[in-house]
Amino acid sequence: MKKHFTLLALLGMVAIGCTEGGIDTGGGNNNQNIVFADSSVKALCVANWDSDGDGELSYDEAAAVTDIGTTFQYSEITSFDELEYFTGLTAISEYAFQDCYNLTSINIPDGVMTIGDVAFYNCFSLTNATIPNSVTKIGISAFNGCANLQSIVIPDGTTEIGGYAFSGCRSLTSVTIPDSVTTIGYAIFNSCTSLHELKGKFATDDNRCLVVDGVFNSFAPAGLTEYAIPNGITAIGHNAFEDCSNLTSVTIPDGITEIGSYTFMRCSSLTSITIPDSVTAIGLAAFGDCNNLQEFNGKFASEDGRSLIVDGVLNSFAPAGLTEYAIPDGVVEIGESSFYNCRSLTSVTFPDSVTCIGYNAFASCIGLTGVVIPDSVTQLDIYAFLGCSNLTSVTIGSGVAEIGDSAFYGCNSLASVYCKPSTPPVLESEVFKHYAEELGAIANLDCAIYVPANSIAAYRLSDYWSDYVDNIVAYDFEKGEVVE
């Protein structure tokens, strides 16, 4: 009898220990604390949600959180699987984990219905993200730039996927769109260069495309060098083929009426493209930074086959093999990013028909050494010649009334700027500046800015021109000499 009593007592002690000793890891006990794998995550959680001040975060304290806001944005956290204990969340906030470069793993808690815009933007170390079945909306650029994300399961019940949601997820190989999805934004899988199949709703028969309401939305390029866009599609959406660097040939069928902005951006192996007569609109820089492109054919192609010109705007340029280029007469505007990164180009000649040089138009054209902007031009847009590091001389025509922010930023070799307007153009910030590594700060370019002698006082007193008082020199443009 004594032996039986001792055994029962021991069993009772074990039972008591399991229920009251705090070792249950299921999170049911009010006094239990979460064990975080990452001390940085713990520190942020305790700083924001430790309601009892004990320096720990309990399961109950986590469950009471209804909004994490941008607490973790830009942080150094590496893993946050413990987010699954934040069961009071119904949304992952916009920008919540933006630029958490070291984050590798996260478990989104069940009950979350919305993953906000830019929530995991640029989390390029992220390899695993668990999306619960409760999610109905994945926001714009939610996982944009998650280059190491190897797989993603979009749960059945999701109804909306925002534009560029998985843009630049270069490690994804296959994705299935559930039947529940009714709304998809632009280019949700653009620049996903390892993607070899797109399945489920909106997928084409070859599982290479998503087509939404007749618009070519996303492409799975892995393993392909040539592609014929299926018949029946009416438009190619923005960025749809961006970064498909192995494609040497794309056939655009008759029936396509619109090609979106940046559609073939950085398709660096394309050598030739034909635009069918059915196309009525082409978006900005549709073939920007296609450095092996030799010719355009068909609608909108210039006579020399080197430019696409749409309603007077030079939209895209085929730079392969050229060092010099004369822009065709009749071009009114040099379009956004149209000559971007044309590194072999050393000289460009503008016709007098040009009135505007657009945003980023010649940025990173590191071969350019001299530029003469004609008097017909009235506007140099933002970043027009950004980073043209070998540019030594620029002449700004007399008609220029506005020079946009950073138009010549980073043109580190620039020695002479001949600015002909008698009235100082409206100047935005950092136009003639660069980052000086020796100073660890932004500084003026070491260049002389020659202005009309009778306008020198006006230049030196004008907004932002006054930043360059020591650079501004009086000049006689008729005689071509400095006025002492």
Care to describe what's here?
The chain is mainly β. The chain has three domains: 36-208, Ribonuclease Inhibitor (Leucine-rich repeat, LRR (right-handed beta-alpha superhelix), Alpha-Beta Horseshoe); 224-315, Ribonuclease Inhibitor (Leucine-rich repeat, LRR (right-handed beta-alpha superhelix), Alpha-Beta Horseshoe), CATH 3.80.10; 322-484, Leucine-rich repeat, LRR (right-handed beta-alpha superhelix) (Alpha-Beta Horseshoe). It has four helices and 36 strands. It has helices spanning 2-20, 39-49, 59-63, 456-461, and strands at residues 79-80, 91-92, 105-107, 114-115, 128-130, 137-138, 160-161, 174-177, 183-184, 197-200, 209-212, 215-219, 226-228, 235-236, 249-251, 258-259, 272-275, 281-282, 295-298, 307-310, 313-317, 324-326, 333-334, 347-349, 356-357, 370-372, 379-380, 393-396, 402-403, 416-419, 426-427, 433-436, 441-444, 448-452, 472-476, 481-482. The strands form ten sheets. It has a seven-stranded mixed beta sheet with strand order 20-21-23-25-27-29-31, with no helix packed on it. A six-stranded mixed beta sheet has the order 26-28-30-34-35-36.
